C-alpha cells in the first residue's frame, strides 16, 4: 500500500475514533519497514481476523478500574454441568450452552470489540489487541472467550504489573525471557521446568533483553548473538537482578519466561 493511501486509511480511522491513534502505534503503521509485520496486517485488513465487527465510534468499556466479571457465564456452566451429569438431559445442556454463548456475545464479545484493533493471533482462540479509546486507551490487552468463560485483561509488564503500551508489548513479545540469580525467586514455576540454559535461544533472548533495557554490562549485541556455550559469556559480564536489585555475573543467571511472573 502506498504511503498516501495508508495515511488516508489512518486518518479515516482517526475520524471514526474522534481522536488520534496512540502515537507509537501510529508511527509503527506509517513506517514502510513494518509493512510485512503481522500487527500491520490486522489494521489493514481487520475483517480477516475478527469474531464480530470492530466499532471505532465507541469506547472500549473495560479497564483496571472496571474489570471483566464473567460470573454469569460460570453460573450457566454450573447449570449445564448439572443438566448433563445429574439430570442426564442433553437437550437442556445444549439449550444452556446456546443461551450462555448468546449472553457471552452480547455482554462481552461485542462490547470488547469497541474502540480496539487486534494486533496478534496468539492461537487457541486467544488474541491480543490494542485499546484505541476509553479508560484503557494505549494499553495492549488479550482475550480468550468461549460459551462458559471469558478472559479479557491487559498484558502486564513483568515485575511491576503495569499494563503494556504497544511498543512495550512488541518488546516483551520479542524478548520474552529474563534472568535472575536465585532459583527461589521462581517458586511459582512448575518444578522449575520452565528454565533454560544461557546458551539456548531463550538464554540469548534473555541476555539481549537485559542489554536493551540497560540492565547488563560487559557484553555487546554481537557477542550475545554468538553465544553457544557458557564459556562464550565473559566472566566480567554482569546483569541487574530485578528481584533483588543487585548485580550478578551473567554466568550465574537463570533464564525464565517473564510472562510467568
Count of helices?
A: 8
Would you identify the regions where 5 or more consecutive residues have pLDDT less than 50?
none
- When the domains are counted, the total is 2
Order of helices and strands: HHHHHEEEEHEHEHEEE
Please indicate the percent range of residues in DSSP E strands (runs of 2 or more): 15-25%
Overall geometry: globular
Cα Rg: 22 Å
Please outline the major beta sheet: 4 strands, antiparallel
Multimeric status of the protein: single chain
Query: Using DSSP, what is the number of strands?
Result: 9
- Helix coverage percent: 25-40%
SS-based class: alpha+beta
Explain this structure.
The chain is of the alpha+beta class and 261 residues long. The protein has 2 domains: 3-68 and 103-169, no CATH class; 175-260, no CATH class. Helices cover 36% and strands 16% of the residues. It has helices spanning 3-17, 23-29, 38-44, 71-85, 90-112, 166-174, 201-212, 221-225, and strands at 116-123, 126-131, 140-145, 150-154, 177-180, 216-217, 238-241, 246-249, 254-257. A 4-stranded antiparallel beta sheet has the order 1-2-3-4. The protein has a 3-stranded antiparallel beta sheet with strand order 6-7-8. Strands 5-9 form a two-stranded antiparallel ribbon. Strand 3 (140-145) and strand 4 (150-154) form a beta hairpin. The radius of gyration is 22 Å and the shape is globular. 27% of the residues are buried.
Amino acid at each position: 500500500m502506498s504511503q498516501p493511501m495508508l495515511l488516508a486509511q489512518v486518518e479515516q480511522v482517526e475520524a471514526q475514533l474522534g481522536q488520534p491513534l496512540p502515537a507509537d502505534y501510529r508511527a509503527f503503521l506509517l513506517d514502510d519497514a513494518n509493512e510485512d509485520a503481522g500487527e500491520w496486517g490486522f489494521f489493514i485488513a481487520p475483517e480477516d481476523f475478527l469474531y464480530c465487527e470492530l466499532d471505532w465510534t465507541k469506547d472500549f468499556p473495560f479497564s483496571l478500574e472496571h474489570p471483566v466479571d464473567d460470573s454469569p457465564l460460570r453460573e450457566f456452566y454450573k447449570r449445564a454441568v448439572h443438566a448433563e451429569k445429574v439430570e442426564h438431559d442433553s437437550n437442556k445442556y445444549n439449550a444452556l450452552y446456546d443461551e450462555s454463548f448468546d449472553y457471552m456475545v452480547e455482554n462481552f464479545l461485542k462490547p470488547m470489540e469497541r474502540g480496539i484493533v487486534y494486533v496478534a493471533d496468539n492461537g487457541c482462540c486467544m488474541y491480543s489487541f490494542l485499546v484505541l479509546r476509553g479508560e484503557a486507551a494505549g494499553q495492549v490487552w488479550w482475550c480468550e472467550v468461549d460459551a462458559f468463560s471469558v478472559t479479557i485483561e491487559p498484558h502486564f509488564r513483568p515485575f511491576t504489573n503495569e499494563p503494556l503500551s504497544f511498543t512495550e508489548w512488541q518488546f516483551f513479545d520479542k524478548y520474552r525471557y529474563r534472568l535472575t540469580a536465585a532459583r527461589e525467586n521462581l517458586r511459582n514455576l512448575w518444578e522449575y521446568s520452565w528454565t533454560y540454559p544461557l546458551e539456548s535461544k531463550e538464554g540469548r533472548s534473555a541476555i539481549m533483553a537485559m542489554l536493551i533495557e540497560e540492565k547488563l554490562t560487559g557484553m555487546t549485541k554481537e557477542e550475545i548473538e554468538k553465544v553457544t556455550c557458557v564459556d562464550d559469556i565473559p566472566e566480567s559480564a554482569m546483569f541487574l537482578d530485578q528481584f533483588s536489585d543487585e548485580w550478578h555475573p551473567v554466568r550465574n543467571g537463570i533464564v525464565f519466561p517473564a510472562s510467568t511472573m
